[in-house]
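Weekly modeling sync, notes
Attendees: S.R. (lead), two postdocs, one rotation student

Agenda item 3: backlog of single-chain predictions. S.R. asked that every request posted to the team notebook include the full sequence so nobody has to chase files. The rotation student volunteered to paste the first one in as an example of the format we agreed on. Action items at the bottom.

Example entry:
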Amino acid sequence: MPRLALQGLDPIALAAHQVARDVAATRRFPFLLERKRARMRVSPFAFLRGALPLYAELLARVPELGRGPDGSGWIAADLHFENFGAFRPESFQEEDQRPRPRRRTITFGMNDFDEAVVGPFRFDVQRLLVSLLLASRELHWTGGRALALGDALLEGYCSRQIPPTPRPVRELCERARARTRRALLDARTELHRGRRRFVRGARYVEVSGRLGRLAERAFAGYAAAVAGHERFDAGAFEVEDVAFRVAGTGSLGALRLGILTRGKGGTDGAWLFDLKEEGAPVAAALGLGSKLRPAERVTTAMHACMAPVPRMLGTARLERRSLLVRRLTPQEDKLDLGGIAAADLEPLAAHLGALTAQAHTRGAGRPTPRWKRAERAALVERAIVAAGVHESAYLAYCRLTAE
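Predicted structure, as returned to the notebook:
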């Protein structure tokens, strides 16, 4: 691999740029700034999750770092270990109008396409490798173990076959399958004068009357389209409560709302929805933009790359904001890397690599290329460099944002 020209690349300056971005991103909702900083200070891996613009800046300033093997199509463009998870994909019709199946269908795969664009596959693969290297520090893996997992991930990506489902994924899906809607409602809502409402606190925050009215109007447009498409009773979408939702790391600062609707009726029949503001993809700074409206870009990528998509996926407009809308289900969950046994790590890495290739193949409409061994080795070397820059920038970020 050609020598990377990192001279003059100052991790402290990169961290300062990220601090400024965080301030700008949370300007509309300043109460989110310290929450965002606190989440990013947890570890280098958490910092990577919340600092995608820094990653794009790094590739823009060191073009050699973004070069690599061929192949392009729809990519997540913000791929890391925690952007894989379990979810339940059926429509409302299957859940609420048909006899209950004996076993709920649970899907596991890539689940976050907020930053999706058409671009080089290597962007996703390298960022996934960087997340693995940074997570290894947090989980006290040796450097040799982390690099071995990187090799397993690349082998899975290039194999064009989905290996047997590893134990951590099977166990995650079984836990998700067992959860009930009542449990989800009890975790996020409370009874108030005989009706459910969101619990205000760390997860949900009160909204102004004006924003609440705008949210209901935006949701009504989504609900009309969904009710017509699914042939479902529009009364199920009658809004019971609206709150500001605090979730994610990189997306903190965007408008995000929780909507509670009547659903099937009664205190245990309510439905929860997530409305998330989408903006221009960060990869646009690298020339990977899109002419689609932000939320339509995300749903287009999800329909292209996922089979099937999460439940009741749709879009809405709130004034000039483009919102992604989906119904929350109790079956959604993510991997907890800290709880995975050492013997399961390599099978898991290979599985995630294969799932990434599967999503890329669907999104491109053709198989991913079989990268040569030398090309894979160069990807790992670039990931090592990017991980080192992020770890240095993380330490500088902690110092710049210290309380």
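Discussion: group reviewed the output briefly. The two ends are 41 Å apart (CA to CA).
Action items: rotation student to repeat for the remaining queue; S.R. to check formatting next week.
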